[in-house]
Design a protein that fits this description.
The structure is a single chain. By secondary structure, the protein is of the alpha+beta class. The chain folds into two domains: 1-80, Beta Barrel (OB fold (Dihydrolipoamide Acetyltransferase, E2P)), CATH 2.40.50; 82-241, Up-down Bundle (de novo design (two linked rop proteins)), CATH 1.20.1440.120. The protein is built from seven helices and eight strands. It has helices at 42-48, 88-104, 112-127, 135-147, 182-192, 206-223, 233-239; strands at residues 2-15, 19-26, 30-37, 56-62, 69-79, 161-163, 168-170, 179-180. The strands form two sheets. Strands 1-2-3-5-4 form a five-stranded mixed beta barrel. It has a three-stranded antiparallel sheet with strand order 7-6-8. Helix 2 packs antiparallel against helix 7 (233-239), helix 3 (112-127) packs antiparallel against helix 4 and helix 4 runs parallel beside helix 6. The protein is elongated. It starts with a strand and ends with a helix. Pfam families: RecO_C, RecO_N. Keywords: DNA damage, DNA recombination, DNA repair. This is DNA repair protein RecO. Involved in DNA repair and RecF pathway recombination.
Length: 241
Amino acid sequence: MLAATEGIVLHFIKYGESSVIATVFTREFGRQSYMVNASRSRKSKNKAGLLQPLFLLDMEVYQKQSRDIQRVKEFKSLHAYQNIPFDIKKATQAIFLSEMLYKTIHEQESNPELYDFIKGSLLYFDLMEEGWQNFHLYFLFRLTEYFGFMPDTRKTAFESWFDLRKGAVVANEPSHPLFANKEATGHLLTLSGLKVNELGQFHISRSMRDTLLSVLVDYYQLHFENLGEIKSLNVLKEVFH
């Protein structure tokens, strides 16, 4: 079946001498793998350049439910980012988020609400001038809502800790090690109440950014047993130091 769909590039690997296999989160079919010709012609090289982390594609594909790797008839850029590919920090954030999405989105079925959230967030992130340094924290927090494990951040006492196992803010320090300290919990509560256009009001130190990032990744690892090591995590932390 020949079909049209939008897609967000999550990952790609070389296949043979003249092809790549791209993993794309599509609006119509969910997560899919596509064989893409990447021959040495100038046109093909330009096409292959579109398969970068979180690039947005407009695609015509031959979709067959029984096939693990689908075929692409044609693809082109859906929207050309203005800043992400040219800003080392934003590009590194995109690489990190693409790895997180690659390891957490597995369903091969349409999820337009999730797709539209990711696409809209990326388009806004690309043009952000203030608060973009903490966009990846905001994005990971909001993404939990679509996965069904958004933290309960209702504060129940003057002192509070975010308990990762319970997925909630608690009034007593947990007896296990999977929790955020009081300072980190306070910043997480602030972040939970912000909209993306309010991130310029969210001021934290570099060390606190690292702490919150570790808390969120640990929280995801509790919900995705096979998440494994996030290879881009240390690179992201280094870029912001």
